[in-house]
Amino acid sequence: MKKILLSALLLSITCADAYAGLMDDLNKSAGGSLEAKAKDQAREKARAEGNKKLAAQVNKKLLAEGRKNQCSFKSGSDELEAGCGKKSKKLAAIIIDVKKTLQSQGQTGFKFIVSGHTDSSGDAAKNKDLSARRAQVMVKELVAQGVSADDIESIGMGSEKMLVKPDDTPAKKAKNRRYEIQVRF
């Protein structure tokens, strides 16, 4: 009985030593302590959650300002209607202000995204292309008003995200022919 008990005790000590050695090997191969890595991951997750909340606040402001300062496009075209200068200047000033605010809070690695949208008339593929061209036109307009070209990108959405459904009147269609500006971290 003593031999069995002694064998079991030696086996458990050997297993414990092997486990401890394995953990040491894992820590060394991970380049540091697992505890530090876990803390870093937790910190990164918290930062991402904070960015998510901040992005929601900033995007709410950008969407509201974008709607107030919306430049209109001619139907079926990426050509801006007359009277866009003052609106794009105000919008550019808001983007520049938001950038300064984000940077003063230590935020980096963000981009402003201009998404172009169309109404539901016509071919979906053509609308996607048209919306991309509209977004590019607005990016050029905002860059001309002082927004850094490195801070802003464009994307075409077509009629995928309509504001007004169904857009079965000229006024509703006009509301869907728009662009939106949001920040992405």
Rg, nearest Å: 28 Å
Oligomer, anyone? Answer: single chain
CA-to-CA gap between the ends?
66 Å
The tally of structural domains comes to 2
Largest sheet: 3 strands, mixed
Count of discrete alpha- or pi-helical segments spanning 4 or more residues: 5
* Strand order within the widest beta sheet: 2-1-3
Provide the CATH architecture of the largest domain: 2-Layer Sandwich
CATH topology of the largest domain: 60s Ribosomal Protein L30, Chain: A
CATH class of the largest domain: Alpha Beta
Question: What brief labels describe this structure?
Answer:
60% helix, 3-stranded mixed beta sheet, 60s Ribosomal Protein L30, Chain: A, 185 residues
Structure description:
With 185 residues, the chain is mainly alpha-helical. It has two domains: 1-32; 41-184, 60s Ribosomal Protein L30, Chain: A. It is built from five helices and three strands. The chain has helices spanning 2-29, 34-68, 85-104, 124-144, 170-176, and strands at 111-116, 152-156, 179-184. Strands 2-1-3 form a three-stranded mixed beta sheet. Helix 4 (124-144) links the parallel strand 1 (111-116) and strand 2. Helix 3 crosses helix 4. The termini are far apart.
